[in-house]
Design goal:
The chain is α/β, with parallel strands linked by helices and about 280 residues long. It has seven helices and 13 strands. It folds into two domains: about 35-110, Ubiquitin-like (UB roll), CATH 3.10.20; about 145-265, Cell division protein FtsQ/DivIB (Rossmann fold, 3-Layer(aba) Sandwich).
Length: about 280
C-alpha cells in the first residue's frame, strides 16, 4: 500500500514538474527574440555554389513578406518559411528551425546547374539529370551556355553529353565559349577565338571529333590563318570539312546561323586514317 502511494505521489510530482517546465519554456520562448539567420549549404563542395546558394537564400529571405528577426522566436513560422524557400526550383531540399542561439537556421541542399539554356526568349539552368532550374539573378552560376529552339523531341537534355564531355576535356573547355544547338545532328561550338564556328555534329564519337579538330588547328590554321574559314565541321567520321568564309563577316551571335554553307570544301590528308562517308 505504501509503495503504491509513493508511486502515485512520484507520478503526480513528475507530471507537475513537466507542466511547469513546459510553461517556463513557453515563457522563455516568448521572452527571447530571433536575433539572426544562419544558412548551411549541404551536399556541395563547389565554393561558387556554396557562396551563391548562401547569398541567394539571404536575398530571398530579405524579400519574405513577414518579419523574421527582431520578433519572439515563437512567432517565427519556420514551416511557412520552409515552404516559401521550397517553392523555388533551386533546391533539392530545405529545412528550417530555430537553433540554440535563437537564429533561424536554414539547411538547404541545392540543385547544381551544369548548363544554362536560352530557348525562344526563355532562360533557365538544368542540372546533370536534366531538371530545370529557374535562372534567378541571385543564384547566377557560371556554366556553359547553350542556345537553341528546343522541342519535345529535341530537348536541352539531349545536349548534356556534349556539355559533360567539354567539361572533361580541358582543351575543348578552354576553346568553347557557347554551344548553338541547331538540332540533334548539328551542335555548333562557338569558340572564344573569333573567326569561325565548329559543327560538332551529334554526341557520338566525341573524343575522335575533338582530336580531329585540334589536328586541323595544328596542321591547317598556321598556313591558312584563322579568317580563311567560317565553319569547321568534324561531324563526319575520319573527315574534317571546312567552309570558306563568306564576304559577310561572321558574327558570334545567333544571327550567324544563316551565314554559312555546310560542307562547302573538304580538306584532305589531315586525318590519321582514310576518309569515309558520313555515318
Amino acid at each position: 500500500m505504501t509503495n503504491t502511494v509513493l508511486k502515485w505521489l512520484l507520478l503526480v510530482l513528475l507530471t507537475g514538474y513537466t507542466a511547469w517546465v513546459t510553461v517556463w519554456a513557453n515563457r522563455e520562448a516568448r521572452r527571447h527574440e530571433c536575433t539572426g539567420i544562419t544558412v548551411n549549404v549541404l551536399g556541395s563542395e563547389n565554393p561558387n555554389i556554396l557562396e551563391r546558394t548562401r547569398s541567394g537564400i539571404e536575398t530571398e529571405l530579405a524579400r519574405y513578406p513577414e518579419q523574421i528577426t527582431g520578433i519572439p522566436v515563437h512567432n517565427v513560422n519556420t514551416e511557412k518559411i520552409e515552404r516559401y524557400l521550397s517553392s523555388l526550383s533551386n533546391f533539392e531540399s530545405v529545412h528550417c528551425m530555430i537553433n540554440s542561439e535563437n537564429h533561424l537556421l536554414v539547411e538547404a541542399r541545392p540543385l547544381e546547374p551544369v548548363m544554362r539554356v536560352f530557348n525562344g526568349g526563355k532562360s533557365y539552368y538544368i542540372n546533370r539529370e536534366g531538371k530545370k532550374i529557374d535562372a534567378k539573378a541571385e543564384f547566377f552560376t557560371d556554366v556553359p551556355v547553350v542556345c537553341g529552339n528546343f522541342t519535345s523531341s529535341f530537348t536541352p537534355k539531349d545536349v548534356l553529353p556534349l556539355v559533360k564531355y567539354i567539361d572533361s576535356d580541358p582543351k575543348l573547355a578552354n576553346l568553347t565559349g557557347m554551344i548553338v544547338a541547331l538540332d540533334s545532328r548539328n551542335l555548333i561550338l562557338v569558340p572564344r577565338i573569333k573567326g569561325h564556328v565548329v559543327n560538332f555534329g551529334d554526341t557520338t564519337r566525341m573524343k575522335e571529333k575533338s582530336h580531329n579538330l585540334f589536328l586541323f588547328y595544328r596542321k591547317v590554321m598556321p598556313h591558312k590563318g584563322w579568317l580563311e574559314y567560317d565553319t569547321v565541321s568534324v561531324k563526319f567520321r575520319d573527315q574534317i570539312v571546312a567552309t570558306r568564309r563568306d564576304k559577310k563577316k561572321l558574327q558570334h551571335s545567333e544571327d550567324y546561323m544563316d551565314d554559312f554553307d555546310m560542307e562547302e570544301h573538304t580538306l584532305p590528308d589531315i586525318s590519321d586514317q582514310p576518309q569515309k562517308n558520313e555515318n
